[in-house]
Amino acid sequence: MKVRAEDGLVYFYKKGKTGDSVLTKNSNQFYLVCKEVQKKNLHIHIDNARLLPTENDSTVFVEYLPGLKYEAWFIQAEDSLGADGKLQKGKMVFTSFLNGTTPLEKNKIRIQIYLKKENELVLSNVYYYKD
Q1: CB 104 within 8 A of CB 127
Q2: CA-CA-CA-CA torsion sign (76, 78, 80, 86)
Q3: What is the DSSP string of the chain?
Q4: In angstroms, what CA-CA distances link 27 with 21, 48, 58, 60, 131?
Q5: pLDDT digits (tens, 9 = 90+) for 74-98
Q6: Please, how many CA atoms are within 13 Å of residue 35, restricted to the half-sphere of its CB?
Q7: Which ranges of the chain have pLDDT less than 70?
Q8: 45 has which bridge partners?
Q9: Which of 48, 62, 86, 98 is the most exposed, fewest CB within 10 Å of its CB?
């Protein structure tokens, strides 16, 4: 299945069984798909885990870190000069930062995606972590 981002839409869903809300060490990859221009407007809150990028720019994985709270967003990488001498815009890079501790139960991972400009919650999911 291939998903293409449309204007205003953000897709965030688990890779593999779509109806499954249980995460394990082997079942922790997600697709995060949106238009390139939307990336700078996303702000993600994660409880008991953090999201980390993969080599594919639309896939992230969850690293279980009980008791901690993280935030993630895309930042603009440095612009660079191409081989042809023209300025190339920097790529949007996904990054995570620690933001304290969470009172959420340790077996639950909550992921919330906000639009920064609108301060609007567009998605909130709770997953259960199992060793």
Answers
A1: no
A2: positive
A3: ------TT--EEEESS-TT--EEBTTB-EEEEE--GGGGGGEEEEEEEEEEEE-SSTTEEEEEEEEEEEEEEEEEEPPPEE-TTS-EEPPPEEEEEEEEEE--S-TTEEEEEEEETTTTEEEEEEEEEE--
A4: 10, 16, 17, 12, 11
A5: 888 776 666 677 766 777 888 899 9
A6: 6
A7: 1-8, 17-20, 79-83, 87-88
A8: 71, 112
A9: 86
pTM greater than 0.90:
no
Output the six-digit token pair for 42.
């996303």
User: Within 13 Å of residue 69, how many CA atoms lie on the same side as its CB?
Assistant: 9
Location of structure tokens 């990336």: 39
Tell which residue, 116, 118, 119, has the closest CA to residue 41: 116
Length of the chain: 131
Report the C-alpha gap between 72 and 94 in whole angstroms.
7
